[in-house]
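Why do we care about 3D structure at all? Because function follows from shape, and shape follows, mostly, from sequence. That is the central idea of this module. The next example makes it concrete: a single protein chain, its amino acid sequence, and then its structure expressed as tokens.
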Amino acid sequence: MSAWISGARPNHHKLSPCPPGTHPLVEHSRRADWCDVSLGLRAGGVPAERYRAILRRFPALGFHRRLAGLALRHAWRQPLRPFPMLRL
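And the structure:
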């Protein structure tokens, strides 16, 4: 479990796949995060109907509105400092 936790912090929000040797759950978590944030557009292999079924079971309840607000606030306050997952 500790390999998953230590690998999750620097990798779970990255756009690119996790480096080789990273615990498999970290890559699965990274894909799940992007599937959630992108409303299924970046589904990570999850079929569209399955994603819709998951949303029916676990509705977002304002999650994406909150993300948009945080992103706008961050862009306004720190326009030259992108989010860590967008940095090269």
